[in-house]
Amino acid sequence: MLTLTNFRDLGGIPNKHGKQLIDKRLLRSAELSHLSPEQARQLAGRYQLGKIIDFRSAAETLERPDVSIAQARYVHIDLLAEAQQQAQASIAAFSQLDSVSKTTEYMQMLYQELALSPAAQAGYRQFFQEVLANDADKSVLFHCAAGKDRTGIAAMLMLEVLEVSRTLIYHDYLKTNHMRSQENARLVAQAAAAGADAAQQAAFAIALQVDSRYLDRFYATVEQHYAGVENYLHTVLHIDPASRQQLQQRLLR
């Protein structure tokens, strides 16, 4: 297993019809700003990485640019380019929250923004196009900062297209809390050392995790505005039967 924060290969996840995602095709992680030479070699070699899709803001990518990986094309898609300041998904924004209750509502608002914002919708459309345009025998790695919200929705949408059960979609989404536990503890300790009080530390700890209620909010939002995720995929993200078939043929076995 590659030792990279919140990294996982979606290969092996079964869909509702007895097929499985092919190994080393769809990878998700946190940002690649601290990638070691050995980690870069593993991604280029073992995982045959063909494309990196970075969902962070322009400011995040300037402050902490991804490490380049040989042969991998880098694609930047700012999902929250049009979002208000109160709906940002950066770790710096999370560190400014000061109460657990505010944090929970903030996160649910963020997921609503990811469902409805024109920039997010255009970005997720491009995400699917980039996966389809990648070399068939290469992998795509997609990430944001923590690899949990913007990335979590991208994974959820892809798994919906591949007809994975809602139960397994939530299982992959919630796996982030285990896979980020050490890094989250480090970040909270860093905030404490910088002067964050107990309430701020508790709020920051919550913001660094995922919660099924956040994904619930996304699903509820698309249900309210688009009559469900299937219609959202078709009308907003332009996943027609032909592109769904292409994605399934490419990513399932």
TrEMBL record:
PANTHER family linked: TYROSINE SPECIFIC PROTEIN PHOSPHATASES DOMAIN-CONTAINING PROTEIN, TYROSINE-PROTEIN PHOSPHATASE
Organism in which the protein naturally occurs: Aquitalea magnusonii
* Pfam families in UniProt: Y_phosphatase3
- Give the matching InterPro entries: Prot-tyrosine_phosphatase-like, Tyr/Ser_Pase_IphP-type, Tyr_Pase_AS, Tyr_Pase_dom
Lineage: superkingdom: Bacteria
Entry's Gene3D superfamilies?
Protein tyrosine phosphatase superfamily
What protein does this entry describe?
Answer: Protein-tyrosine phosphatase
What is a GO molecular function of this protein?
phosphoprotein phosphatase activity
| Family, as annotated | Belongs to the protein-tyrosine phosphatase family.
Start and end residues of each Tyrosine specific protein phosphatases domain: 125-159
